[in-house]
Amino acid sequence: MANSDSGTVHKNRIALTSVIAAVFLTSFKLIVGLLTGSLGILSEALHSALDLIAAVITLFAVRIADLPADNEHNYGHGKIENLSAMIETFLLLVTCFWIIYESINRLINKHPIEVNAFSFIVIITSIVIDFSRSRALYRVARKYNSQALEADALHFSTDIWSSAVVLIGLIAYSLFHFVYADSIAALIVALIVLSVSYRLGRRAFDVLLDRAPSKIVDQINHVVDQIPGVIKYHDLRVREGGSYKFVELNIHVNKGLSIEEAHSISENVEEEIAKKIPHCKVTVHIEPD
């Protein structure tokens, strides 16, 4: 229980720092974008604003997800993390539609921008903060198998690439006076966000629909095949909810075994699967063969 409480505190702390970082970046980009008229920076500001909303959703999701199972939620509250990831996907798609619309409009109608030192400062600052945030979030997400924190990390890591694209657009505009550079940079940002949205949304959707993760199923099959006393097994079911995996299966044992011996085999199955797959809760039903 102490480790669980420590993990909850750790996840809450990292989620809160992401909210603070998103507030700072959104404000900074919005102010500079409005002052310079740069669509690239404004698109980055909108991207960061939706990242802020996503970070707030993640903060609440990780708090709710760690609540223990109760009579109404027998499998716990972990799927709130997957639901938050789906909401983040929707927010990312909204970003894309706006950026693409504005980019095409400005490609058709040339729109001059003002590039100054603050244009470069805000983008470089964004890259530095996004890099540190994404690394910290990925580290905690992997440690506690949190999809909500992983989604948040994906947002910040995406911002690194999109900010880099905007930076290239600003350089091209300031050095070569290429008037389309800013709009093209914004379009590339939209394509990056679309790619991230698809990967993030597909994984969250699969979990919400209880799609069996094939990689985990293969791992379980390999583990159970090696356990002595298991004659055969069937009805293997695997589902995910937040940071946990729930495994159910029926095993056949020799009908001449005592209850204690059969129970010992089932415990061995549970322990070996749990060793192979972290954050896993296993239920084994025994049948005489």
Please tell me about this protein's structure.
There is one protein chain. With 289 residues, the protein is mainly alpha-helical. The chain has 2 domains: 2-208, Alpha-lytic protease prodomain-like (Up-down Bundle); 214-288, Alpha-Beta Plaits, CATH 3.30.70. The chain has 8 helices and 3 strands, in the order H-H-H-H-H-H-H-E-E-H-E. The chain has a 3-stranded mixed sheet. Helix 7 (214-225) packs across helix 8. The longest helix has 35 residues, at 2-36. The radius of gyration is 24 Å and the shape is elongated.
Keywords:
about 290 residues; Alpha-Beta Plaits; 2 domains; 8 helices
Short description:
72% of the residues lie in helices and 10% in strands. The protein has eight helices and three strands. A three-stranded mixed sheet has the order 1-2-3.
Distance between the termini: 38 Å
Q: How many beta strands in the DSSP annotation?
A: 3
Biggest pleated-sheet summary: 3 strands, mixed
Portion of residues in beta strands equals: 5-15%
Q: Helix share of residues?
A: over 70%
How many domains would you count in the coordinates? 2
Give me the number of helical elements.
8
H-E order: HHHHHHHEEHE
Strand order within the widest sheet?
1-2-3
Question: Are there runs of 5+ residues with pLDDT below 50, and where?
Answer: none
Mind telling me the CATH class of the largest domain?
A: Mainly Alpha
Inertia-based shape: elongated
Mean pLDDT across every amino acid position: 80
The CATH superfamily title of the largest domain: Cation efflux protein transmembrane domain
Which architecture name of the largest domain does CATH use?
A: Up-down Bundle
- The CATH topology of the largest domain turns out to be Alpha-lytic protease prodomain-like
Broad structural category? mainly alpha
